[in-house]
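Suppose you are handed a protein chain with no further information: no name, no annotation, nothing but its sequence. What can you learn? This example shows the usual starting point.
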Amino acid sequence: MEKDINLRLLDAISFENVTLVEQLLEQGADVWLRDEKGRSPLHFACSRGNLEIVKLLLQNGHAWNAIDNEECTAGEYAKHKGHNLVYELLLEEGCRAELILGLLNSKAEKDDEPSNIDYLSQSLKYSQDGTKLLDYENNGVMMGWEKPLMDRHAEVICFREGLDILNVGFGLGLIDTAFQKYKPRSHTIIEAHPDVYQFMMDRGWNNKPGVKIIYGRWQDVTDQLGATNAFFHDVYCRIAEMHLTSVGLQTEYIEIPIDPSNDKIWEGIKRRYWTLDTYRLPKCQLMLEI
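A reasonable first move is to predict its three-dimensional structure. Written in structure tokens, the prediction is:
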């Protein structure tokens, strides 16, 4: 009986029978059902683009971030079919859920930061040509293909020469090198990882005019100074925009087309950390200045 009602739920979603979907959910149909491809009821509803059925599923406990066997979200199904209202609804649901989760976890995160500590205690290494920064498992931390993106960041940020620059995290030094082209009045770099800090010192960054290097986590050292999935990417860009708005900043995302699909870029890398074909560069301004 349970199997029958679940299959009837998928059929009702496919035929966009809102009344029947609601009845089956009330009778206990399983919103966690998956077909052989890992598709959930939400995937089917998003593919059809039925806003009311999507709302019903979410109201009955369906996860907004469900993925199929190919790691494709229901939101991506909606976007690929051009169902923009459904996609926007899922973005809002994702933001709401993540903001609530963030509030619940904020105290725990203050008391326990193992991932940060683990990262700083792990060895990092640079390739001989200086174009790759890898962790101990050969996962890419930063790579040379990101240089055009960092150059564009610097171009957007440095609207004139003589600015005061603060950068958290050096990596390969891509954006800091780009900043130097705009002759900043001061250029402060905060870096917490010992291997990266040593790389900076070996490259003579501590001797560059106007450059000040602060060794430590930004959370700990700011008092010395006088922040792969397209659907998830959109959700967290929206959340970032909401947080920035709350502190008086208006955010505009500049979309930059990129192609990280070339296998040669990732040669020797265990796992690709970027697969999207669009990079969203955040440009923030104080609302008082607009």
